[in-house]
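Schema walkthrough. Field components (list of strings):
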Amino acid sequence: MARAVTPRRKALNTALAWAIGLLIFFPILWTILTSFKTEAEAIASPPLFLNFDWTLENYAVVQERSDYMKFLLNSVIIAGGSTLLGIIVAVPAAWSMAFVPSRRTRDILLWMLSTKMLPAVGVLYPIYLLFIRLGLLDSRAGLVVVLMLINLPIIVWMLYTYFREIPGEILEAARMDGAGLREEILYVLTPMAVPGIASTILLNFILAWNEAFWTLNLTAADAAPLTAFIASYSSPEGLFYAKLSAASTMAIAPILILGWFSQKQLVRGLTFGAVK
Amino acid sequence: MATRHFRSTARLMMAPAVILLLGWMLVPLTMTLWFSFRRYLPLRGGDLGWAGFDNYVRFVTSGAFWPSVQTTLIIVGGVLVITVALGVVLALLLDQPIWGQGAVRILVIAPFFVMPTVSALVWKNMFMDPVNGLFAHLWRFFGAEPVAWLSDVPLASIVVIVSWQWLPFATLILLTAVQSLDREQLEAAEMDGASPLARFGFIVLPHLSRAITIVVLIQTIFLLSIFAEIFVTTGGAFGTRTLTYLIYQRVLESQNVGLGSAGGVYAIILANIVAIFLMRIVGKNLDR
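Field assembly_structure (string):
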């Protein structure tokens, strides 16, 4: 709600908010700027802000030397695959809990949430061992399954809260008109739920893209996504700031853009409906 | 209204999600519990038999345990204090009418979308490096001796990095809560002569208490298991070994699976204690 404030007060608030906003954003901005410098300019003292020779060279070198596209592709497959698989499993479950609730629905929902709280490190070795035995270590398929499972509670919850907002009378009306379960879900529910499903996909894609426990521990050269690729820069080999920046910028840019669209879903998805 | 057939179909549709999560929970959990009672050293003889509670005792009596608990508490506590305090301030500021509100919001939220390995490496190299980091340039500019952040004040450095990542989350949730504040009550208090501080203390803060509780609980659960930030900055050196990192080292680096699994069981119990409080709030909300 907009309130009347004096222009002076508004100007002051604006200046303060922008100053803090830019300060918080600065590390990202600095990374992006550095990615366009040469390695010498990247460590120049005093630091160069805009007055350097802009170059795209780092991006070319990162791709050439490290096969960046492979890691990008792994990230897309792992994040996309786990999200889609999760949606396929979660839509029927969320539909069932939202529209045909039983006495146990509440407990099931809370139990699902509790599996999300299981600390990953507590089950690290069992998963590691199972991956070795099943030949899944350093495979994209294995990570798709694990990331699907760790995000499944969030997907079910988000879909559940979206479905709950759809008036049940509409479904009943469809049933009266003779729609079967399949028609009901396909032609009545799905079109109304598309925005909610899209938001759920968006947020979970972001979470899976940035996941950095299982991706670091269960991959090596073949299935490593961008999180693991970037981590490989942690061992210093000479001057590498500009290249690190270029690799980082490429890894975060798509998600930053998607993230801006998902601000509202972030609250819903990560507080499980506890904050509205 | 709904027929029995209809109901059982609905139950069936829940089955895949329930079975998958049940398997995901029970199988590894049972294995961890089992290993925690074994002397299990995959690289030094394999499974050497029943160990009773030996692993549990050895895990808490080893010299690394209490420091790791302390480190965990400092990191979780430090990040919570910083993100909640700054989050409240930022939420109140962003709630004010300002020019370019949407743009500022985007700037503030952005760090949340940066993958943990990128933010850790960017901070480590480009800001905290004692020779080429931006802070080192800044320190030299003011004639001070540059600080080797991650080895001299490692915990504070990691708290800064992780706070930067989680501030957007706290701000966004607190902002959502601030926006549901009753404006008329605030204006009435203002007309009655309540100072800004009194209005904050008696109206705004109590209104935010629920949202703050939720931020604290959810962040605690995620912060207890931060990994990548330590993995790429210090690798657990300089006293930055958290409980999570200690267990990781026992299990994968030194391959003492029995000992690490006992630690894992402790971590699971700890996370569940926090989770119970969170579930209560979430559960209450479901009933409404």
